[in-house]
Specification:
Length: about 230
């Protein structure tokens, strides 16, 4: 069995699987301008998110100080001051809750924008794979010699936004070869049987893999192997 072009990821992004695609591609100049605007939107959103995140710790400290002041004024029977401290604390707690919700919305929007920046197909090069029990053909770059269960190839993912990705493999498998593969990220995995290819290399869509850690590892492992004796 030879794996010739594992792995191509087809990003499903954050959009629903049934989202319609545009009928025609934009002009190159329009595409560049749109990409620039998208990159600017991502940076602007990231900057705003970081500013909001930086404000949370001082705000929490202020709320704690108000709570102590409220208790102290109540114990000293200075009830007007205690009530004023309580009212201010409650306002700040409402503000903290608002900022927390705003952060969630910004994080979701940032993931969506990053997904829109992805190319339609994300190729994981054979040369970038860390191999165990597998060989790389110096001429073609294909991964060969999958002779034992547990043989694996590992890629570092290129900081993909979390979401669903279709996994496509290009491979070649003789009549007396084959087996089954496991493709796994940190949490989720796919399994597939490898069928014989009768007319040279074949492209096969393994399925949709959910990626939870876009900067983590993707591991392709031979679960079972059948080789010519």
């Amino acid at each position: 069995m030879k794996i010739l072009a594992l792995l191509a990821f087809i990003s499903l992004g954050i959009a629903p699987f049934g989202t319609a695609q545009p009928a025609s591609a934009p002009e190159p100049s329009d595409a560049v301008a749109a990409a620039d605007r998208l990159a600017l939107d991502v940076e602007r959103l990231r900057n705003h998110r970081q500013l909001v995140e930086a404000s949370l710790t001082p705000l929490k400290s202020y709320i704690s100080a108000l709570y102590l002041l409220e208790q102290q004024r109540a114990e000293s029977r200075d009830y007007p001051s205690a009530i004023a401290a309580r009212d201010e604390r409650q306002r700040m707690e409402s503000e903290l809750d608002r900022l927390a919700k705003e952060l969630l919305l910004m994080e979701s929007r940032e993931r969506t924008l990053k997904a829109e920046q992805l190319p339609d197909v994300i190729n994981l090069a054979m040369d970038n794979a860390e191999l165990q029990g597998v060989s790389r053909d110096p001429g073609t770059g294909a991964l060969t010699q999958w002779q034992k269960p547990g043989a694996s190839a590992t890629w570092a993912l290129p900081n993909l936004p979390p979401g669903g990705y279709e996994v496509v493999v290009v491979y070649e498998c003789g009549a007396l070869e084959g087996g089954s593969l496991l493709i796994k990220e940190r949490t989720f995995s796919l399994t597939t049987d490898i069928a014989t290819t009768l007319r040279g290399p074949a492209e096969f869509n393994i399925g949709t893999l959910k990626i939870t850690e876009g900067g983590g590892q993707l591991v392709l492992t031979a679960r079972t192997v059948c080789v010519t004796i």
